[in-house]
Amino acid sequence: MAAVHPSARIAPTARIAPGAEIGAETVIGEYSVVERDVEIGTRCRIDSHVVVKRWTSLGDDNVVSPGVVLGSDPLDKAFSGERSYLRIGHRNTIRENFTISRGTAPESETVIGDGNFIMTSGHIAHNCRISSEAVIASATLISGYVEIEDRAFVSGGIGVQQHLRIGELAMVGGMTRVNQDVTPYLTHVGPTMAVHGLNLVGLRRAGLTAGEIDRIRAAYRILFRSALPLAEALAKVEAEVEGRHARHMVEFIRASKRGVCRRKGRERVED
């Protein structure tokens, strides 16, 4: 039998498989399907015509709009049909007609953190890791093994190649082709991705102080606007710029396996 909390509300046309668990005060809309081995936490709202596939878990207070498919088989020829997972945290909003796959390798997982806003008609592929409070806008396609750090903003109509990373509080403009790692705190824009300065709107909304932003700007100037080779620029930032944000930029770039985008775009006057 399905373990449905007495306070949950299940629409008459919804189908809840044996072995699924539905938490307190969760609402499941008309014609939605929840397969076995699914866990849905408390106070979630699963609207009509949603499919939650096997081996998917959702935490509390998530909102899932019509047409969403969660935990679909990965779009990967290497997939052998073994058990893998999609794990979704708390307070996420997933809007209409979005799909998120579970992992490819047996027992691997796709992970979505907390408080993310995922808009319409896009896809997050197998084995991605989305941290918390990120925004992923409509019609964005995120390939396998991509990592997106906290509070990043990924605009609409974007394609992100596999095995890439988008850093904390970075902003990627609409219709950009993401084919290198995106350094934290910066804005990247254009069909041929280029760095256009600091993500000042995002930094200020996140509550960073003027001093913190100034230190990020100093690191950015050394790393992206000086003529120094990258290794020398990284060493100079370490020696001259204090603060955790500058350290994170250096660590992120040093850990990059695909290389970070250093192509220069038009710099904003306020930067």
CATH fold description of the largest domain = UDP N-Acetylglucosamine Acyltransferase, domain 1
* Largest β-sheet summary: 11 strands, mixed
Through-space gap between termini: 59 Å
CATH H-level homologous superfamily name of the largest domain? Hexapeptide repeat proteins
**Low-pLDDT sequence parts:** none
Specify the structural class. Answer: alpha/beta
How large is the count of helical segments? 4
Number of domains: 2
Q: What gyration radius follows from the Cα positions, in whole Å?
A: 20 Å
Helix content: 10-25%
Mean pLDDT: 97
Percentage of residues in DSSP E strands: 25-35%
Secondary structure: number of strands:
29
Furnish the topology, listing elements before pairings:
Elements: E1 3-4, E2 9-10, E3 15-16, E4 21-22, E5 27-28, E6 33-34, E7 39-40, E8 45-46, E9 51-52, E10 56-58, E11 63-64, E12 69-72, E13 85-88, E14 93-94, E15 99-101, E16 109-112, E17 117-118, E18 123-124, E19 129-130, E20 135-136, E21 141-142, E22 147-148, E23 153-154, E24 159-160, E25 165-166, E26 171-172, E27 177-178, E28 186-189, E29 194-198, H1 200-205, H2 210-225, H3 230-240, H4 244-255
Parallel strand pairs: 1-4, 2-5, 3-6, 4-7, 5-8, 6-9, 7-10, 8-11, 9-12, 10-13, 11-14, 12-15, 13-16, 14-17, 15-18, 16-19, 17-20, 18-21, 19-22, 20-23, 21-24, 22-25, 23-26, 24-27, 26-28
Antiparallel strand pairs: 28-29
Helix pairs in contact: 2-3
